[in-house]
């Protein structure tokens, strides 16, 4: 039998999921510099045993082996699904085949969503709703609907007896490293990146979920990606701030430049902002990890977009980056668009169309022909000073 580490996170609750050390991209979009983990948890009550979530395709046998070390998969009573996305739910069928008596437990929305992706034996579905519980003997599973964190069907499972919250993607972080939060110094930064990529568009739903769980006195948070929090405050406090959309006096600059003209403009605004006491983060979209951009969006008060004109519109990478910024629905209050063109222009117009309907106030734009002149750069400085002034108020 293969040797696996199977942490007992609290009495008779085992982490039986998998680490995917080498995965480098998620959702065909999100870079994973440190891999990720697909966490699943086995809960052994005095009478019944439940598995909370499963694993990504390819890790089914590891899951089976781990469960059989601490229990007996064949005798599993319940398979709880917090979220239908395949990285957590793909092994549903595998588990239900290996555990012939197990009931599949999720919400009505969960059943609907799971049926779109996984084969479910109709007779073995047990639907639960907000506030319902399942008694395992000495341990009760309590279900909390947490829609949109991260799909419409998401729920949390809570064991009041042990004060453990299984929060699925909420509070997650993409990293294969560590078992507990104390193992990773930069964990909050990784969690912030994950929050920006996955949860920020649903910040209001996140705030509602935090409200629901605030009086639970949670002692352990066991998410579906990344380490388990033995110090829940370490993630609850930042989540409180992030879901409220509280920003810092910080400007995020995202830009593309083929021949340096736009770069000179964004460098000028960066220096002006720094002089005015604004914290600045700058990313060249041709060479940046979009996860870092997502992380900085979580609490940036302003976003500066820089793009040259290419074929009558924005540079394709700037178009992609700007689209993503908008789709992630960051709390930033102010925007600036800068860029250079060679003859007819067009990038600024397209950026305006794209950002127009967003809640960000575009408080300054400048498009220059060729290299920015001294006068142009003075205008950029003026925009920077005005932006800094607005950001302080
Ligand atoms: C592939 C390519 C396509 C371009 N298309 C346009 C265009 O449609 N309209 C325009 O005004 N300038 C166009 N330009 C000129 C650039 O916008 C111009 O060189 C600008 O100063 C580049 O700024 P940068 O140094 O920040 O990349 C194009 C340049 C390149 C390389």
TrEMBL record:
Q: Name one GO molecular function term.
A: electron transfer activity
Q: Which residues form the Flavodoxin-like domain?
A: 251-388
InterPro entries, per database record: Flavodoxin/NO_synth, Flavoprotein-like_sf, Metallo-B-lactamas, ODP_dom, RibonucZ/Hydroxyglut_hydro, Rubredoxin-O_OxRdtase
Q: What PROSITE patterns would the database entry show? A: FLAVODOXIN_LIKE
CDD domains under this entry? flavodiiron_proteins_MBL-fold (cd07709)
Query: This protein is called what?
Result: Flavodoxin
């Amino acid at each position: 039998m293969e040797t696996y580490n199977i942490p007992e996170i609290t009495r008779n609750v085992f982490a039986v999921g998998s680490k995917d050390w080498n995965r480098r991209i998620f959702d065909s979009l999100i870079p994973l510099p440190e891999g990720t983990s697909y966490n699943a948890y086995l809960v052994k009550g005095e009478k019944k045993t439940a598995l909370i979530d499963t694993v990504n395709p390819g890790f089914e046998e590891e899951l089976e082996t781990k469960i059989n070390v601490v229990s007996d998969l064949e005798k599993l009573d319940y398979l709880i699904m917090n979220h239908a996305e395949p990285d957590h739910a793909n092994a549903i069928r595998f588990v239900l085949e290996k555990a012939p008596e197990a009931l599949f437990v999720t919400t009505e929305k969960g059943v609907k969503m799971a049926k779109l992706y996984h084969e479910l034996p109709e007779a073995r579905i047990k639907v639960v709703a907000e506030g319902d519980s399942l008694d395992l003997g000495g341990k009760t599973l309590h279900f909390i609907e947490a829609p949109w964190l991260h799909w419409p069907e998401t729920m949390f499972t809570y064991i009041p007896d042990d004060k453990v919250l299984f929060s699925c993607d909420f509070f997650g972080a993409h990293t294969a490293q560590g078992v507990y939060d104390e193992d990773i110094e930069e964990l909050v930064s990784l969690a912030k990146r994950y929050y920006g990529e996955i949860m920020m568009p649903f910040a209001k739903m996140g705030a509602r979920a935090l409200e629901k769980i605030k009086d639970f006195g949670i002692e352990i948070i066991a998410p579906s990606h990344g380490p388990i929090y033995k110090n829940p405050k370490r993630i609850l406090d930042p989540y409180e701030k992030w879901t409220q959309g509280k920003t810092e006096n910080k400007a995020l600059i995202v830009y593309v430049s083929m021949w340096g003209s736009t770069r000179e403009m964004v460098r000028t605004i960066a220096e002006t902002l720094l002089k005015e006491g604004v914290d600045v983060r700058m990313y060249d979209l041709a060479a940046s990890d979009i996860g870092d951009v997502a992380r900085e969006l979580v609490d940036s008060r302003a976003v500066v977009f820089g793009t040259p004109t290419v074929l009558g519109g924005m540079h394709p990478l700037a178009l992609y980056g700007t689209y993503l910024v908008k789709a992630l629905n960051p709390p930033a209050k102010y925007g600036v668009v800068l860029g250079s063109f060679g003859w007819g222009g067009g990038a600024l117009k397209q950026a305006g169309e794209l950002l127009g309907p967003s809640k960000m106030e575009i408080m300054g734009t400048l498009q220059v022909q060729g290299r920015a002149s001294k006068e142009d750069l003075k205008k950029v400085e003026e925009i920077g000073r005005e932006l800094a002034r607005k950001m302080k108020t």
